[in-house]
Amino acid sequence: MKKIALVLFSMSAIAFTSCKEEKKKTINQEQSITETKNHIENPVYVGTYTKKEGHVDGKADGIYLMDKQSDGKLKMIATVAELTNPSWVTISHDTKYLYAVSELVDVEGNSGYLGVYEINDDYTLHEVAQIPSGAYAPCHIAVDKTDKYVFVANYAGGVFMEFKKGMNNSFKNINKVNLNELPEAVTKTSHAHEITFSDDNKHFYVNDLGDDKIWIYDFDESNGDIKPNQQPYVSTVKGAGPRHFVIADNQKFAYSINELNSTVTVFSFDKNTGGLKKLQAITTLPEDYKEFNATAEIAIHPNGKYLYASNRGHNSIAAFKIDAEKGTLSSIGYQSTEGDFPRYFGIANQGKTIYAANQNTGNIAELVIHEDGTLSSANNVVEVPTPVCMAFIK
């Protein structure tokens, strides 16, 4: 396979500096979070949509802070950041920072934003920077294992950006890659949807929903340099729409959830080279389901035995058993998310619980994970306006 060229745009040496000097007003000050700090058992941040867009009727206020209590129930605490369409939130590995996209579309300008927040002792957020994301509709953030480099995937622009974190919360753009301009791009309608790092921090993967590819890059954590892998990409079937990607803890297999044809593609994973080889594609839907569906999130159980995928339309979490030797999947059932359009779910409570965020019905449902990997309802649903992402700090 011909090695592709990396399209890098040299950026001026302008660092996006901290706005730390201007103390941001605490949201919902009438609600004293400090007083409740000692009662917050497990803080959870919820990303949302705040305004009506073509694909969503956003009704939220921004980023919400919730408490995952000892009984598994989620309790709303407060709005901790008023950011437009924070549809993806992630926490730094040292748990000191929260990063959030501001998913703005092209009619609002030529860029969305990356919001950077310090996590205060009382779990409120202090904004330290808002950085143009380099294109519009940013939809995912990845932080390398050293916490020095932050990557943003821009869906509508087919662009991903790399920022280097400097002194005093400054951020400098050091790489900008337009997937549409890569020689191997076929459709020229790339949609960068997620960036995933390998466990050793030497490779990362960019799911391109528009061009039906997963681009593979080598990464040098000492200086942030990136270059195409010796295997620059792997393709899914045409029209699959690879959305999100996960690598198994055993470093032998990897999995892509494909939004447009409701499948999961299984790959063998070479941890030394970072290469991928297709092994299987399996549907996330029951045979008799013929209505609209678009998959969204994918996750592997902490024990490595089971994989889960969310169905928007069928409104379920599909459960699969992972063959320990082959890495292939077999269906073990489906569980309703007790709402509409589960864009995100997260596994918590030592692998005992799934929290499914239902975008269109404005709720998060708690599901029980049984020892055999199957799911059932915990009969616990909490209202949250337009929830689409969750970040667990513990």
From TrEMBL:
PROSITE patterns: PROKAR_LIPOPROTEIN (PS51257). One of its GO terms (molecular function) is 6-phosphogluconolactonase activity. GO terms for biological process: glucose metabolic process. The keyword Protein biosynthesis does not apply. InterPro entries: Cycloisomerase_2, Haem_d1_sf, Lactonase_7-beta_prop, WD40/YVTN_repeat-like_dom_sf. It comes from the Bacteria. Keywords: Carbohydrate metabolism, Glucose metabolism. Belongs to the cycloisomerase 2 family. This is 6-phosphogluconolactonase. It comes from Pustulibacterium marinum. The lineage of its organism: Bacteria, Pseudomonadati, Bacteroidota, Flavobacteriia, Flavobacteriales.
